[in-house]
Amino acid sequence: MNLNKYLDVAPEVAAAVAAGKPVVALESTIISHGMPYPQNVETALKVEEIIRENGAVPATIAIIGGRLKAGLTHEEIEYLGKEGTKVNKASRRDLAVLVSKGADGATTVTTTMIIAHMAGIQIFATGGIGGVHRGAETTMDISADLEELANTPVMVVCAGAKSILDLGLTLEYLETHGVPVIGYGTKELPAFYTRKSGFGVDYQLDTPEELASAFRTSLDLGFRSGMLVTNPIPEEYSMDPAVINKAIEDAVAEAKAQGIHGKATTPFLLAKIKEITGGSSLDSNIQLVFNNARLAARTACALSALN
Ligand code: PSU
Ligand code: MN
């Protein structure tokens, strides 16, 4: 399966892709930059287990020693988790330079989609995507994740987006670029830590089969874009909106006061929110990733039955 001279697809993943069996891609920025050690490694390994229990093969994606990897060993996951923020956060603009230097890179939603697509993987599960930041009308801080969703045909299952972003502008941007935003069992865009945001999604779909059918149709129509599935955090793990919204407001104000900008913004906000909420946001974050992994694996099974 080495279609690309820079790409290493793990043997189990390559065999599953070749046989049309269900595979789910996973990102590594969430490991290196999104959670502290050792919870990051424990979570990443547990997510892989959940994907297997639900009938699919997991493919955690990263750049290691300049190689694009689709499918990591447990040792490689442990390495990325221990190195943490020492690993470069790799978005589309970073990829070629990191590969040519033989460097490591933690893949964001953007680069995970790119590498998943190269490896023939159609579905990817994560926690939250990047989007249009608050104040983007002057800072122009818009995540490359939105561009990638417009240009790479991979379904991304997430728990919505955090209100560290301007959710209304994020939805407008996705509409302009032709990316459908699906609510799984909901008409309302979930806001990551909470099930509600006050914004509607484009369509509600209620089963993995319906999700698979919609994405299969998009591929059949020759669309090059992805599809965004937003899956609300399970009720029992969702946070008190007042508590989390206050933490987000304070984190955004702190980032502004410290002049944080560019690729440092999202990791700074995530760490600050965790600090302010005393770790309870981390528990919610872990649970919603598990929930997304389950849905992505079931959808991958439904998609594989259709293909
Ligand atoms: N949002 C989260 N958790 C995350 C990220 C975003 O709630 O871990 C990570 C993802 O890897 C996402 C990236 O692709 O941050 C977006 O970064 P930026 O805003 O710099 O594009
Ligand atoms: Mn940005």
UniProtKB/TrEMBL annotation:
Q: Which residues bind substrate?
A: K89, V109, S143, A144, D145
Needed cofactors = Mn(2+)
Protein keywords: Glycosidase, Hydrolase, Lyase, Manganese, Metal-binding
Q: How the cofactor binds, per note?
A: Binds 1 Mn(2+) ion per subunit.
Q: Which GO terms describe its molecular function?
A: hydrolase activity, acting on glycosyl bonds
Q: What is its EC number?
A: 4.2.1.70
Top-level EC class as recorded in UniProt:
lyase
What positions constitute the catalytic site? Answer: E27 (proton donor), K162 (nucleophile)
Q: Which InterPro entries match?
A: Indigdn_synthA-like, PsuG
Q: Which residues bind Mn(2+)?
A: D141
Enumerate the catalysed reactions.
D-ribose 5-phosphate + uracil = psi-UMP + H2O
The function of this protein is: Catalyzes the reversible cleavage of pseudouridine 5'-phosphate (PsiMP) to ribose 5-phosphate and uracil. Functions biologically in the cleavage direction, as part of a pseudouridine degradation pathway.
Member of which family? Belongs to the pseudouridine-5'-phosphate glycosidase family.
Matching HAMAP family: PsiMP_glycosidase
Q: Spell out the subunit comment.
A: Homotrimer.
By its UniProt entry, which PANTHER family does this protein fall under? Answer: CARBOHYDRATE KINASE PFKB DOMAIN-CONTAINING PROTEIN, ZGC:136858
What protein name does the entry list? Pseudouridine-5'-phosphate glycosidase
Q: Which gene encodes it?
A: psuG
